[in-house]
Amino acid sequence: MMEDVVLEAPATRRPPERALLEIVEQTVRDLQPGAAVLPRIVLDSTLDRDLGFDSLARVELLLRIERDFHIDLPPETLQRAETVHDLLVAIARAGSAAPSGAQVALDLRQPGAGEIEEPATASTLLEVLDHHVQAHAEKVQIIVLADDTATEISYGALAGGARKVAAALQRAGLEPRQCVALMLPTSAAYFACFFGILMAGGIPVPIYPPARASQLEDHVMRHAGILANAQAVLLIAVPEAMVVARLLQARVPGLRHVVTPERLDAALPAADSASAEGAGPAPVQVGAEDIAFIQYTSGSTGNPKGVVLTHGNLLANIRTMQKVEAATASDVFVSWLPLYHDMGLIGAVLATLYIGMPLVVMSPLMFLAKPERWLWAIHRYRGTISAAPNFAYELCLKGIDDAALAGLDLSSWRLAFNGAEPVGPDTVTRFAARFAPYGLRRDAMTPVYGLAEASVGLLFPPLNRGPLIDRIRRDALAREGRAIPSTAGDATAQRFVACGRPLPGHPVRIVDERGNEVGERVEGRLEFKGPSATRGYFRNPAETARLFHDGWLDTGDRAYAAAGDIYLTGRVKDIVIRGGRHIYPQEIEDAVGTVPGVRKGCVAVFGSADVALGTERLVVLAETRAADEVVRARLRETIGRAVVDVLGEPADEILLAGPHTVLKTSSGKIRRSACRAEYEAGHLQARRLPLRWRLVRLAAGALALRLRAAAAAAARFVFGLYAVALLVLLAPAAWVAAVLAPTPAIAWRRSGVAARLLLRLACIPFAVRGLERLPLDRACVLVSNHASYLDGLVLVAALPQPYSFVAKRELRDQFVAGRYLAGLGAEFVERFDARRSVEDANRMTALVVAGRSLLVFPEGTFVAAPGLLPFHLGAFLAAASAGAPVVPIAIRGTRTILPDGRWWPRRAPITIHIGVPIAPALHEASDVFAAATRLRAAARAEVERMHGDGAGQ
Predict the structure, then answer these.
(1) Which domains can be identified in the chain, with CATH numbers?
(2) How far apart are CA 809 and CA 815, in angstroms?
(3) What is the DSSP string of 132-150?
(4) pTM above the 0.85 mark?
(5) Can you spell out the DSSP letters for 509-524?
(6) Cα–Cα distances in Å, from 781 out to 316, 818, 820?
(7) From 224, 538, 628, 896, which residue has the greatest number of CB atoms within 10 Å?
(8) Where are the alpha helices (DSSP H) in 579-690?
């Protein structure tokens, strides 16, 4: 618990804690000029880990505090203060120098545990969870229904389970920002694993387990592409899915571990053991711009599209939806939606977590087996909000007998969201009428629209309006793209349901093929932008480039606007254009699905290019169990008449196929593009292999991949052995030559010859670019990223003239490293003692002023994970104080060859980019600190630019 502090307020009469937080915030801003997002600053923020203050930045902060508070801080403050609260205590103890004024009593203790507030200042999902744990840890947040049992999960239990998973993942070698795939059903383990991955610093990638053995081959092929794209290093799956998991592991080289939640849990000590306290995860810094999870959308096997969603995206979407829905902690959300789908994971789980409302959740299989379980859960738990795709409402209409509804009360249900697929006008009307006797209000029916690229929600209708259905002329929409209202007696009219209006702060527009915005009741592409919008697809720059148009995100859907509402008409890629007419597959599929003998929901309509006619052929693919050719012929005729009834013209080709031929997404949507690809490749007409042979083909493919991986591993081993042997042979001679050299310049030249020889003999491609940019007539400060122990070696090989390495002081006393670096003329500096660190920084400034050029790794250390660590300020302060330019250098490839924690090298090319020198810009003599921060920001940005996507490799 924080101690009570009583101190005098500054002359401005601001509360001292507020004044201190403002000083810290301004200093952070000055340290990170131009940063779009700053770290959250509270009294518990640590100066180094949370706010990025190194020793020199602390000095500047303390100077500002002393100036604003008119005090002299105790000398030990520089070294001992770890948090902003520690600074507040130090201010209180420096009272003798404070100006006179009213005494302010400041109670810094946490508010009462019973006080519940919305986590309005939370910037990450972990902060949201922590907020609720601090406020009401024992409150139940999730109730998991399974058959006749109900498992309650409190906020505290959720956080505790997540901590155990996080610790196990870190012990398994998970590093920050690595992906972990979740192939788990709806269960208590799912929630612990999802948040555990976040706590460990990883990125969850939800995927779905195979539903049927017949889909195993397609499932493995699709998910192997997803996991390879995500570069997943670990897969968590239920024991029943271990066969699939092992097949996936064989096809994804980087997938190191496949585990079950039980094995993760068993790897930890018991919660009540003496060592349990130390078994928690190592803290990992997570911010609003970090990826919260990757939502893979439906796509082909070869080109998976992983929607990148940050913590900031998710919280922006949830907060905006909350206001539109008027949702509060007194609501109850009931869901059966799959947790690998955005509506189930974000709309149900994460949104309820943020708001603090209870979530009652069951598996999709429970719902599909008995749809009435969904409605009875709403009845039993007095659910007020629930959501489902259109098919679920249709299933309730057709799959529930009246006898199963006796006593049902749906009067508590105020928001029945219908989204994730086209909303059927008949469905919402009939559902409202069917369940009105059970208390359901018509205005509870709430058609909505969203997409993974917008986190989850984008369009919402006004509360309590009910569904709005528009009838338009079919011919005008098909041939002219205009949504003209039809007459009352028009039997061919098309009907679309209004999906609502854009969320506040998320403008939308509808554009034509040239990108020009269209008018009222004109169909076009729907685009949007806003804080919920993804920044793109994970490791897929080509698809990301196609996603954005002039800053607007293309939804891939066609729509028109009328009286402020948006009406969705269909997917751009699914619309068939035949003879200049736009044909919408959905209504044809619905009509064909009603034909007796056709499997409902198992019809795909798509277009296939007709090169001879320069248009598209209309193909109808329908599943049937009928085997007799006479029956199948009659079925084709009936399907043909159904198509004519809808379109007024026939289909070009009608294909009948066996069950499970029509490809679908994990959420049950028809994969029309994938069906078209199968059709054009001739696979739909080909006889499918029996299941046993498909399994043999999968196993053979996995074995071939294993053999190739083993061959690659053997080649890496041979190279590593050869490289280590070269190092053992060359290093002693190079060390002696450098140590015995009469001057650092000669030692540098000898070391450069040895380093270049080593790289050449090891057959490592080595290139240096920008040598002409090095200043030859004045002292400078070279700053380079740090990725590996090889960095010093390659810089010596690359730079033709000697520079003074700035190395950590603890190396000075080492016989091998210390003697060698001393021979090169290195300067050693303190990293841990704050006072000595400041003295060393002043010494570096004096060296530069005297004409010495320094070579610094401003990150101070390196880690195995790619990317740049924060830059320390010392090198830039020395350059600014001496008026010397900073030369940014980017090393690429050394982390691949020899990353942190590995001593067996791999072969990879090394490239060194030398950037344009950056001169310090001092606006006035006292502006050294500001000039140093500007230098640091500019140099770091230049290093990142020179690396591109490979920064820090």
Answers:
(1) 5-106 (1.10.1200.10), 470-571 (2.30.38.10), 576-680 (3.30.300.30), 716-950 (3.40.1130)
(2) 13
(3) HHHHHTTSEEEEEEETTEE
(4) no
(5) EEE-TTSPBP-TTB-E
(6) 42, 22, 21
(7) 538
(8) 585-593, 629-647, 672-680
